[in-house]
Amino acid sequence: MSVTVKWGRERLAFALPQPDTPLAAIRRSLAEYTGLAAFRLIHGGAVLADDAATLRQCRIAEGSVIVLLPTAAAPAAPVVSDRPLQPLGLATEESAVLAAIHTELASVRSSLAPDLNDLLARAQDAPSDKREYLRLGELLLQSLLRLDGIAPERDWHTARKARKDAVKEVQALLDCLDDTIAARKAAGLH
């Protein structure tokens, strides 16, 4: 079961254990990964306060989004672990790594690719805002870095191929943006 945890600007994709797993196990895993001692978890508009409640009782299922909000007792700027998220030791499973890759690529396809296509369509006609080019370039680069942070095991051929294909797809979008910027500069439009 793959879910997304929103933490500020971060989007963490990971696999969850069985539906009868208590929320406390998820909270411990996120605390270890983020370095936060105190935070709230919100799902479906409700604060998840009962750590004894199971994932089923919290209605956390495939594709759920959980928001992680640090509380006042939490450090202002927690240091994110440099290792991939491994809740409950399950990220060692190839399916969890595949879920993280697919989540990142789906995010690029749903939010960045349409913005890029719109920007490129407008680029032919009139001067455009340089900030939009920079924003998209930065977001695509961040996506590449997140994909680079996903490290499938050597013998996980499916996950390694999925990561390689995802990197190629995001890099192609970034290359297209860079080519458009170069062409606009050459034409004196940028």
Describe the protein in words:
The protein is an alpha+beta fold. It has four helices and five strands; from the N terminus they run ββαβββααα. The chain has two domains: 2-87, Ubiquitin-like (UB roll) (Roll); 93-186, Up-down Bundle (Methane Monooxygenase Hydroxylase, Chain G, domain 1), CATH 1.20.58. It has helices spanning 23-34, 94-123, 130-148, 157-186, and strands at 2-7, 10-15, 39-43, 46-47, 65-70. A five-stranded mixed sheet has the order 2-1-5-3-4. The longest helix is centred in the middle third of the chain and has 30 residues, at 94-123. The radius of gyration is 19 Å and the shape is elongated.
Question: Could you outline the blueprint of secondary structure elements for this entry?
Answer:
Elements (H helix, E strand, L loop, with lengths): L1 E6 L2 E6 L7 H12 L4 E5 L2 E2 L17 E6 L23 H30 L6 H19 L8 H30 L4
Parallel strand pairs: 1-5
Antiparallel strand pairs: 1-2, 3-4, 3-5
Helix pairs in contact: 2-3, 2-4, 3-4
